[in-house]
Amino acid sequence: MKRILVSLSLLSTVISPLTAEAQGTASGYWSDAWRGWHFYEDPEPEPPDRPAPTPKVAPASPRPTAAKPPEIVEFERLQKSLEETRNIAIMRPTEANVRRYMELEAKVVARASTFADVAQRIAWASPELDPTLQGRPVNAKALEVFDQLQMSQRSESIGTLGRDHVLFFFFRGDCPYCHAFAPTLEAFQARHGIPVVAISVDGGPVPGFPDARRDNGIATTLKVTQVPAVYLAQPFTGKITPIGFGVLSEAQLVERIAIVAAAPTESVTSLLARQSGPP
Question: Which of 12, 171, 198, 268 gives the lowest tally of CB atoms within 10 Å of its CB?
């Protein structure tokens, strides 16, 4: 009898924890019944992979600056000293300050003069570096020869231009400047072989051009508001370019016509568009 009691006691000791665990499991299941059957649930998402840490780049070491030539250092020091001395002399113009600035300035001028002398000797020995031999000469005799050659070359080009170009000469019969300019244009026509078409704005005459035409509206089209006026025209293409207004010399006419002929010209339409400007 005693053995039976001991066996029952041990059995209750073993069953009690199991029963409690089973009750806990059951209660947990019934309290979580809203979730439904577990095998219908999607698996929990895996945690995203953490991005690999960016390797740190060591900052680039600054490049060593090249040392300035001693001449540059000396020049900058002299330039700064001259500027500071001048500023002091301006703000406090005592005799001592002004004298100090003038003495320093004299040293700078002397160095610049020495440089100019050396550069001049090099230019004399090197024609390709001599600015007096490039472009328009500065010597009076050489300048005279240069102008004669240039005039001859431009006259030939204007003669060639006269094959298909004319000069429009707008004038008024009551304009004294037009009367003074007419003989120049008459001689220019005879010398260079380019025809001059005289157009009277008011219908009056001008000496040297007895066959002058009366304005038919072209002066208004070109917006000629001042006379005398000269235009270079190519009748076959309709290109018209202003040459100048007022009384011009023959040399000015030759120079301007040569320059205009070398540059792209424009038609009457584009000329009017440029003169009228944007709407």
Answer: 12
Whether residue 6 is predicted with pLDDT greater than 90 in this model: the reply is no
DSSP string, the chain: -HHHHHHHHHHHHHHHHHHHHHHHHHHHHHHTGGG--GGGSPPPPPPPPPPPPPPPPPPPPPPPPPPPPHHHHHHHHHHHHHHHHHHHHHHS--HHHHHHHHHHHHHHHHHHHHHHHHHHHHHHH-GGG-GGGSSS--SHHHHHHHHHHHHHHHHHHHHHHTTT-EEEEEE-TT-HHHHHHHHHHHHHHHHH---EEEEESSS---TT-TTPEEP-SHHHHTT--SSSEEEEEETTTTEEEEEEES---HHHHHHHHHHHHHS---BHHHHHHHHH---
Taking alpha carbons only, the member of 237, 248, 243 closest to residue 158 is: 243
Closest CA to 228 of 194, 192, 199: 199
- For the chain, list the domains and their CATH numbers: 68-134 (no CATH), 142-276 (3.40.30.10)
Between strands 239-245 and 213-214, the pairing is unpaired
Q: Is the pTM of this model over 0.85?
A: no
| C-alpha–C-alpha distance, residues 168 and 230, integer Å | 6
Tens of pLDDT, residue by residue over 179-201, are: 999 999 999 888 888 889 999 99
DSSP string, 46-95: PPPPPPPPPPPPPPPPPPPPPPPPHHHHHHHHHHHHHHHHHHHHHHS--H
